[in-house]
Amino acid sequence: MENNLRKPFFINDENVEQYAQQMASWIAGQVNAANRQGLVLGMSGGIDCSVVACLCHLANVDVHLIMMPYGSDMNNSKSHAHGMELIEKFNFPYHIFDIKPAVDALTINNEAYIAASSESNRVLSLANIRPRVRMTYLYQFAQLGSRFVIGTGNMAEATVGYFTKWGDGAYDLNPLAMVTKQEVYTLAKYLGVPESIQDKSPSAGLWEGQTDEEELGMSYAQIDAFILTGTSGEPAIDELIHRRQQQSAHKFAAIPTFKG
């Protein structure tokens, strides 16, 4: 499969060992160059964070996995069990912080404000508090141990702006930024990510039963095709991708400042 100019490499079954080793070396180099003691990673039990955790393990970098449920949501979705399966397989140090008290304390409950908003804005405004609170926990934990926060967002998510600004979009380094979802699964298989994680539907865990592809209105395979060939294969999906790119442009742009 040919790449476009935005994608300088492609990971497949033949070269996955090479790229996994290169990515692990890059991670170790970033930590060592900044004289950090290691890394902190938010563990949701999903495929992306599991692959990054395994890359850190391959890099022989001290990484602490932080599970941050909102009450019982990780148990309800089996994300806790999946995360623990990975942790136990690779013997990762881990910590659990329930973010429910912090999220609930930060939620605006003024009926006038809520009534004046659209239903979609109400849902997303609440859902996006969670990744922003998780980011705060990660950065405090990282600073306590002189560590970096490592990101897990992949290229498919970035292409359609599918991340929370100042939430899961905040990190110090990210090995998956130029990696499509298809490549994530190739890495997962090579690195030994448990099959229970590889087989489940990707979810950002924004609310119970939420899945990425249902919320996006397109599949990751379609987004990957758009990245690699310039089209998803369906004009309506291409249009939706372009629309999402326009709507999320502010997430990538420098913050506007008045310069006189």
From TrEMBL:
<comment type="similarity">
    <text>Belongs to the NAD synthetase family.</text>
</comment>
<dbReference type="InterPro" id="IPR014729">
    <property type="entry name" value="Rossmann-like_a/b/a_fold"/>
</dbReference>
<protein>
    <recommendedName>
        <fullName>NH(3)-dependent NAD(+) synthetase</fullName>
        <ecNumber>6.3.1.5</ecNumber>
    </recommendedName>
</protein>
<feature type="domain" description="NAD/GMP synthase">
    <location>
        <begin position="21"/>
        <end position="251"/>
    </location>
</feature>
<dbReference type="InterPro" id="IPR022310">
    <property type="entry name" value="NAD/GMP_synthase"/>
</dbReference>
<dbReference type="GO" id="GO:0003952">
    <property type="term" value="F:NAD+ synthase (glutamine-hydrolyzing) activity"/>
</dbReference>
<comment type="pathway">
    <text>Cofactor biosynthesis; NAD(+) biosynthesis.</text>
</comment>
<keyword id="KW-0547">Nucleotide-binding</keyword>
<dbReference type="GO" id="GO:0005737">
    <property type="term" value="C:cytoplasm"/>
</dbReference>
<dbReference type="GO" id="GO:0009435">
    <property type="term" value="P:NAD+ biosynthetic process"/>
</dbReference>
<dbReference type="GO" id="GO:0005524">
    <property type="term" value="F:ATP binding"/>
</dbReference>
<dbReference type="GO" id="GO:0008795">
    <property type="term" value="F:NAD+ synthase activity"/>
</dbReference>
<keyword id="KW-0436">Ligase</keyword>
<keyword id="KW-0520">NAD</keyword>
<keyword id="KW-0067">ATP-binding</keyword>
<dbReference type="Pfam" id="PF02540">
    <property type="entry name" value="NAD_synthase"/>
</dbReference>
<dbReference type="InterPro" id="IPR003694">
    <property type="entry name" value="NAD_synthase"/>
</dbReference>
<dbReference type="GO" id="GO:0004359">
    <property type="term" value="F:glutaminase activity"/>
</dbReference>
